[in-house]
Amino acid sequence: MVKNRKSCEVPDATVHRLPLYLEKLKLLQAIGVEDVSSRQLAESLDIKASQLRHDFHYFGGFSRPGRPYQVEKLVPALEQIIGIAEPVPTAIIGAGHLGQALANYHNLDVQGFPVRGIFDTNPKLIGLEMRGQPVRDMDELETVIREEKIKIAILTVPSANAQAVADRLVEAGIIGIFNFAPTDLKVPEGVAVRNERLAVGIMSLSFKVKCILQSQEEDIAEV
Amino acid sequence: MVKNRKSCEVPDATVHRLPLYLEKLKLLQAIGVEDVSSRQLAESLDIKASQLRHDFHYFGGFSRPGRPYQVEKLVPALEQIIGIAEPVPTAIIGAGHLGQALANYHNLDVQGFPVRGIFDTNPKLIGLEMRGQPVRDMDELETVIREEKIKIAILTVPSANAQAVADRLVEAGIIGIFNFAPTDLKVPEGVAVRNERLAVGIMSLSFKVKCILQSQEEDIAEV
DNA sequence: GTAGAGTTGTCAAAACCATAACAGAATGCG
DNA sequence: CGCATTCTGTTATGGTTTTGACAACTCTAC
């Protein structure tokens, strides 16, 4: 199966678009659309059709020349590629506001990431129910991860604890960490980390806002 | 001031790194570091020094050849560039779990985005206090935005309402929208949108996890 | 004062990604 | 059937971003 190894040698940019394709396709599926051409799909996502076909090309053909894509086939194919053909048991570490928000984010389940464990150190939170899951003491972390075969953890603990918790997660067998703490985690080879920095997002937005305001001022000055 | 207009013609990739530079520099500042070389700073962020210098080069020199960067000068310079030299009044639309999480996210204030208005339609939420701010009825949206001169809005409402709310925001004078709804917002020229899709994040993580698992299986098979 | 180590700003090369172009295939219609 | 249209898969082109390389400059040590 050389193809498997090769199918992982894909640009990050392409990987980030796969979820968008899947999302849109599920929407089409829900309203009963059967066929969709690369152009239709691309336009609805505001990208070029050639880029979409190029992306798909990394994974081999999803259709044949002359025939549009079949939604019914494409959805499971993408799910397979993304790795959510089977539900991926997920844990949330840190039941603060952000952790709660994510635990209650219904879409997580729907999109293939059922939450099988919520953990915190705060005695006031331990025992509370969130979406049918009790908040557990961190003592149980390793046990639950192993029993539930959890592979992905969402980390919403304070920065100061993030690295220590990450170490425990890796030790317990976690392979993917979705990190919301503004800290660069050091993890061994064979563990994937994705940092989600709210601050980066809002600041790059601020940069654009500043540019807009400046150009408006200049436009006025020029009149 | 041609430089202003030019300073906005910067690759997105560079813009996204600016907040990281600033964050790290503030950390250094806090522990009393005065000088820092491009190599030191770059290594701590796990990027190449040449990239950092290249990024800075877009905005003109922050130092002179031979001399390292001075933290005390670099921090305000970056704040200026990002547009947070002055605090940027911000609103949160949607006081659900995610909205609450962000409202309580202390760093928002610290990093230059004081929350000056929290809005929701749910009568049960209206009136509640979050970080010293009452949750207001959406009726007050336009008034508060204008009075507080709010320019940036964080959108955490359900997908179905996102576009309608965005329209109101733009009408009221909002220039930047930080959108957490999985919807592509249509906004007029002169309004910046940044989409933050949690689903995309966790799915691209899942892709990498799947690749790791596959390569592990293959390694075992090869032995 | 001079050599050497270390630094930035700048430009050139390499790697990467997005777009365009096109061959080959299917479909629909007269 | 034959033609026009539409479509994918694939390759080539063009552009952007990252990385490497180096001149010019500063400081320290001796």
Shape of chain A: globular
Number of strands of chain A: 9
Q: Please give the order of strands in the largest beta sheet of chain A.
A: 5-6-4-3-7-8-9
Q: Pair with the most extensive interface?
A: A-B, 69 and 69 residues
Task: Round the Cα radius of gyration of chain A to an integer and report it.
Answer: 21 Å
Low-pLDDT residue spans of chain A: 1-5
End-to-end distance of chain A, in Å?
Answer: 65 Å
What does the main sheet of chain A amount to? 7 strands, mixed
Summary of the model, kept short:
Two copies of one chain form a homodimer. Chain A contains ten helices and nine strands.
Describe the structure.
2 copies of one chain form a homodimer. The first copy, chain A, has about 220 residues and is of the alpha/beta class. Chain A is built from 10 helices and 9 strands. In chain A, the strands form 2 sheets. The first copy, chain A, has a 7-stranded mixed sheet with strand order 5-6-4-3-7-8-9, with helices on both faces. The first copy, chain A, has a two-stranded antiparallel sheet with strand order 1-2. In chain A, helix 2 packs antiparallel against helix 5 (about 70-80), helix 3 (about 40-45) packs across helix 4 (about 50-55) and helix 8 (about 140-145) crosses helix 9. The model of chain A is unreliable at about 1-5 (pLDDT under 50). The interface between A and B is large, with 69 and 69 residues. The first copy, chain A, binds a DNA duplex (30 and 30 nucleotides) through helix 4.
